[in-house]
Structure formats: structure tokens, C-alpha cells
Amino acid sequence: MTTVTADAPARKSVIAFARHINIAVIVFIVLYACVGFLQPSYLEPTGFMNFLRRSAPLAILAMGQLFVLIVGGFDLSMSALVTLTVIGGSMLANNDPANTWWTIAALYGIGLAVGGLNGVIVSFLRVPSIIATLGMLLCVDGTAMMWSGGSPRGYLPDNFRAFGRLVLHDVPVVGTFPIAVGVLIVATSLAWWALHVTVFGHRIFAVGDNPRAAELAGVPVSATRIVAFVISALSAVTGGIMLGGFGGVSVGVGTGLALQAIAACVIGGVQLLGGRGSVVGAVAGALSLLALFTLLNLVGLPQPLKDTAQGLILISAVASGALRLRRAG
Amino acid sequence: MHRASIAILSAGLVVAFATAGSAQNFDDPKDFEYAKQLLTMKPQGPEGKPWEQNLGGKEVDTSKYKKPGPYKVCFSNAGVDNPWRVVGWINMQAQVEVDKADIKSFTVADAGGKDDKQISDINSFISGDQCDILIVSPNTTAALTPAVEAACKKLPVVVFDRGVLTQCPVTFVNPIGGYGWGIQTANFIAEKLPKGGKVLGIRILPGVDVLETRWSAANRIFKEKGINVVGAEFTSGDNAKTKSIVEDYIKRFGKIDAIWMDAGATGVAAIEAFEDAGQPNPIITGEDQEDFLVKWQKEKLIAFAPTYPTYQWRSAIIAALKILKGEPVIGPTWKLPQPDITQETLASYVDPKMPPLHYAMCGCKDLPGYPQRWGGKP
Q1: Which of B89, B239, B351, B359 would you mutate first to test chain A, the one with the most A CBs within 10 A?
Q2: Which end of chain B is more exposed for a tag (fewer CB within 10 A), N or C?
Q3: Does the CA dihedral B115-B121-B126-B131 come out positive or negative?
Q4: Residue B136 and residue B114 share a domain
């Protein structure tokens, strides 16, 4: 964190706007400045684009998780759905580019079903979402393992992988433009519009803030919850398509991602019991997490120290978020 | 990244310390020298069937276990939780089918990667009357030792893959192991690289003996030969994480000359990081996974694939039947050969019809159901 002096004037002005800006944005800028200080190539447009490409899957997952968190739930099944998307995608597409489009459609169909089921279980069977989605995590993981026999059974064709891997060159202004960044921009706009502009978005906040009051005010609580879970599941499928594209097929690809998405949201100021949160916060939280991972890679700490540092920084970020919320009343 | 999430629940830290706490010696010069010796030995046994061959070792008399067949074979499996074990497990089932005339029943308990489950699996096997012999693939070495010792008192035991800290099983079937792997791979890289060449170590996770010894042996040789190890990173076997880490190292050092891997499942992701960064492909050591071999051939890489052969799952069944028939077996340790794949032998192992994480050194081409049973296309 020796960059403080170099950045002091810039940071001062940032702090002046802090009241209007999500804290996660500031956290991200500080972390990214550290990354850039250690490795200046990250400050070039190409470096930043590459960083965004890497962050896109988690950012998209965080945005999906955001809807469920605001409505007052958790979606832990995301991790398994990412794995199922990658493994199922490789088996359906079977390394034939001609299969890519219907494969993607089928994967979204699976996502729709999983999200819908989550929502129905939580809304109508009254199972707490943390249990319902944990159960769903096991079911979906089991399905992925049964389907594949425990090991990837095929490759993803290049046009499928393009969403996570392809980089356009010779683009004006930025130089290079990864397709993943395009997907991120589209997803962010959609999520922002759905949450902050539409009536549905207002209902999400209302249900999360006080479900009883929302119900009395005529909000269709169950339908709103179900849609939130569906959005979360669809974001998991999107994230899976991009992760499979970036890294290729592996069985453990989704492990731990739901918790990371939740962590990203919390860093972005989302309240865990519902009713508060923003798309900007979720995305900035995800970018902060990825900047942190990158920073720890670059510093070259030994692994145990790296884990410890990562844990401490995450806890303090979340704690400071909680503190802020309490102060805000 | 996975670790990060655990750390949020802070339980992750406890787990991390717990694994570090049970420190075994993973860098034993004696074992290192022994592995070096084994690598130079000529395997004995039937030509072209490495799963029946042995490197040195003595035969033990098994006449006291002799029984009329067919036999009730029991198998306590640590789990089928990674692609290597998936391939091995299919090998074993196919071998059982080959020997179906001698096997009356084949009862399996899968411990799902949990020590306590495996201990109770073994206990219930030995308390019933359903087993003539018990095959164990231990989940962890120290934890399973007492259970295996208890089993030895009741019936003949065959252990394979990871070991236990007792000599009581009739035989412990395993290949040369981690030190051999480290020696083969590091020598390959050291040969191709000038002094001071930069190598990045990509590892799965800390604390597992077969992986730790791979690294300790390789690191020892890198030091001896003056190779510059710029880092050794854990990836949890995750492609995306591997790719990110390698990208960061390329950024940080400008150029990485070689990639050393303690397991090859993420080999292709590591190479893709160089491709995406517009860099020439590195010298790389991977493993016998098909996706890596296919990439190697296609991109004409300077590469090398050591193996930890999955055919040992066949050997365990073969050993068990020999014991029950009263035929001598190699014991108490049966060292299997550990062949490697080089540029010269690559073509005979590449098979794009097999799934990406199929292990080419499976010794399974003569088994019933090949290749569909292993997920391959006919």
C-alpha cells in the first residue's frame, strides 16, 4: 500500500465524492492502483480489458446473486449450476461448432428450471433459501457428476468458448476488446435496468425490506421471489458459459463461486437480510475481489500467507460494509 | 479463489492449518535416491503388460491364503472424486469382468473422500462374512492405518495407490511415485533450458504426499542445475485460476521459459495463457491426459508427460486373485513401472476420440468395452 503518497490528490477528490459513490468503487480503485503500481501493464487499456475479461464471470454471478440477496434470500446453488453448465455444455456441444447455439439455449432452459424450482421451494414450501439452495446445490452437482461420470466427457467448440476467450484486436480507443467485456456491459445494463428502473425492481426491494408490508400493499411476493431466483440461475448459466470459455472444461469450475458472489455483493454494500443493494455495488465488489486476487498473485506471497491475507482483507471489507450500514441507520 | 470463499467463513483457515500441522517428511533424500534407482531398473514380467510387471522386489509366499474359487472380493475405495480415479475405477471394473470366472462377488464401498467413512466401511467389511480378500485404496495414509491393521488380522489385504504406515498387507501395489515424477520432469526441463532459465511451478494443492514429493524432487533438481524457479502456485486444479495465474506471471516476468506441473489436468489452460498473451509456447511438462497430448501434437510443443499410471487399479485385482489362488506375488511392496510419454512415443498415446481427461497410460486398450466404457467414441 505504498502507493498512497503517489495517489494522494486523486484519492482526496475521490473521498470528496464518497458520499455519492459506492464504497466498493473506492475499494476497487485503491486495489487496482496497487495492482497497477506493481505491474504497470495493468494500467494500459489492454491490461485493463484483460482484467475485465477475467472479472466478467464473477461480476455477472454477483449481479444475479444480488437479486436474491435483496429479496432476502441466498442462492448457494449457483456454484453447481456453473459446473453443470460447463460440463453439460461440453457434452451437448461435443466439440462441434454447429451445436453451439442450441446447446446454449438448452443450458438456459436448465437454468430456468433450476431457478424456478428454487423459487417455488422457497416461496410455497417455505423452506429457508439457504437450505433449499444448498439442497439444490447437491442435486445439481450430483446430476453433473452422473451425467459426465465424474470427468469431463468432451470439449467446448471454439465458437462457444469465444464468449469467455475471444479478444478482438485493433479496436479504436481501447486497442483490444474481449467479447467477455461486451457480455459484461450488456448484462450490467440489463441488471441495472431491471433492478433500478422497472416496477419489478421496486417490488424486489419492497419484498426484501418487509415481505408482509409488501404483500399487504399488493405486491405479488411469491412471483417476485421466484423471478429473483430465476435471474440468479440465468446469471449462473451465463457465468458458466464464460468461465468454460475462458479456461476450458473442468469438473471443479464452479466450486466456491456462490460464496464469492455473495462476498462481492457484501463488499458492494448489499445487506444480507434483504432490502438494500445496487448493481453498481455488486459489480464493483466483484472487481474488487478480482483485483485482490490479482494483487496477491503479483505480490508473490507464499500460499498460506496469501490465504490468510485474503481472508483478513475480505473480513475487514465486509465488516466495514456492515459498519457503514449501521451508521446509515 | 475457492480458498477465499472458505476464508469468509474463517473455517478455511482452520482447515489450512490442520493440513499443515500433520507434517510428514516430503523431502527425504533416501526416498529420492531410491526412486532414482527404480527409474533405471528394467521391469520384470510379461512384455507389454506393465500392470503385471515389477521393478525389483521379492515374491512372498501366499500358500496360507489359498482357497477354492470363485472368490468374494471386497474393495474399500477412497472415492471417485477426480478424473484420475474415474479412469482407474473403470479399469478395475473391466478387470473384474475379465476375471469373472474367478470372482463370485465384487463388493465395493465408496468413502467419498472421507477418512471416517472409509474406516467404518473397512470395519463393516471385516465384521461380515462377505469378503475373502479386501482391497483398499486409502484416502489418507495415517488415518487409515489402524483400520487396515485391524483388517489384516481377519483376512488378506491388498493396498494400492496411496499407502498406509504398516507392512501388514500382503502387498502394497504402487508405481515409483512422486519422487520419480519429480526427477523425470525436472531433468527434462533442465536439459532444455539454459542455466538461469525461468520456470513456473503449477501445483494443485499442498499437503498431499504424492504431490508434495513430486515438487520436492523437482525443486531439488532445479536447484542443483541452477534453474530459476520464479514461483510455485496452487490452483486447486481449476483451469480458469491456472490461466489467470500464468497470465499474471507472464506479465510480471515478461517471459516464462518453462512450466512445470505436478498434475496435468490444467496443462492446456496454462498453454492457452501463453497463446492469449501472444507469447511463444513454453517448454512444459504435463501428464498423460488426452487434452494435453492432443494439444502437444497439434501445437508441436516441446513437452513431456510423466504418468502416475491408472493401470495400477488393474494390478490390485490381479494381485488379489493371485493371493487367493496361493500363487506368489511381489510383496510387501510391489513397485510397478512408471512409463513416461515423450516426443517419440507421443503418437501412440494421442487419441482424439477419448475424452479430454482420459489418462492415456491406462493400460486399458485390451479390456472389454474399450473405448466406450471410458467415454470414448468408437
Answers
A1: B239
A2: C
A3: negative
A4: yes
Residues B122 and B88 both lie in one domain = yes
Q: What are phi and psi of B63, to 5 degrees?
A: -60, -25
> Closest Cα to residue B30, out of B298, B217, B272?
B217
**One domain, residues B299 and B316:** no
CA A62 to chain B, closest CA, distance in angstroms equals 13
Q: Strand B198-203's sheet: what is its strand order?
A: B228-234, B198-203, B258-261, B283-285, B303-304
Reading the block at residue A192, the C-alpha cell is: 441495472
DSSP for residue B251: H
Q: How far apart are CA A109 and CA A231, in angstroms?
A: 12
CA A123/CA A128 separation, integer angstroms: 9
Give yes or no: residues B260 and B314 share one domain: no
Average pLDDT over residues A53-65: 96
Residue matched to cell numbers 491388498: B158
Q: Find the CATH number of the domain harbouring B217.
A: 3.40.50.2300
Phi-psi region of A149 (alpha: psi -120 to 50; beta: other; left: phi over 0): left
Round to the nearest angstrom and report the end-to-end CA distance of chain A.
Answer: 31
Burial class (CB in 10 A: 0-12, 13-18, 19+), B327: middle
Say how many CB pairs under 8 Å bridge A and B.
Answer: 142
- Name chain B contacts of A142, Cβ cutoff 8 Å: none
Contact A235, A60 (CB under 8 A): yes
Q: Judge if B170 and B313 occupy the same domain.
A: yes
> What is the identity of the amino acid at A12?
K
In a domain, B32, yes or no: no
* Same structural domain, B143 and B188: no
pTM for this model (two decimals): 0.83
Residue B368 covered by a domain: no
Q: In what order do the strands lie in the sheet with B157-160?
A: B103-110, B71-77, B133-137, B157-160, B171-175, B333-336
CB atoms within 10 A of CB A197: 10
Got the DSSP string for A48-111?
A: HHHHHHHHHHHHHHHHHHHHHHHTT---TTHHHHHHHHHHHHHHHHTT-GGGHHHHHHHHHHHH
Among chain B residues, the shortest Cα distance to A41 is held by B251
- Grid cell listed for A23: 464504497
Q: Where are the domains of chain A?
A: 4-328
Residues B295, B183 within the same domain: yes
Residues of B in contact with A252 (CB under 8 A): 2, 236-238
* Distance from the B275 Cα atom to the nearest Cα atom in chain A, whole angstroms: 11
Of B7, B206, B266, the CB nearest to A303: B206
Q: Do B154 and B190 have their domain in common?
A: no
Distance from CA of B212 to the nearest CA of A (A): 14
Q: How confident is the model at residue B206 (pLDDT cuts 50, 70, 90)?
A: confident
pLDDT above 80: residue B22 = no
**How many structural domains is chain B composed of?**
2
Q: Which domain holds residue B104?
A: 57-175+309-331
- Host H or E run for residue B159: strand B157-160
Cβ-Cβ contacts under 8 Å, B212 against chain A: none
CB atoms within 10 A of CB B72: 19
Q: Cell 429473483 appears where?
A: A228
Neighboring chain A residues of B271 at a CB cutoff of 8 Å: none
Alpha helices in A197-302 (DSSP H): 199-209, 211-216, 221-247, 257-267, 279-299
Q: What are phi and psi of B67, to 5 degrees?
A: -145, 155
B212-249 pLDDT, tens per residue? 899 999 999 999 999 999 999 988 888 988 999 999 89
Q: Which cell is B42 given? A: 528394467
Whether B370 is covered by a domain: the verdict is no
Check: CB of residue B373 under 8 Å from CB of residue B91: no
In a domain, B317, yes or no: yes
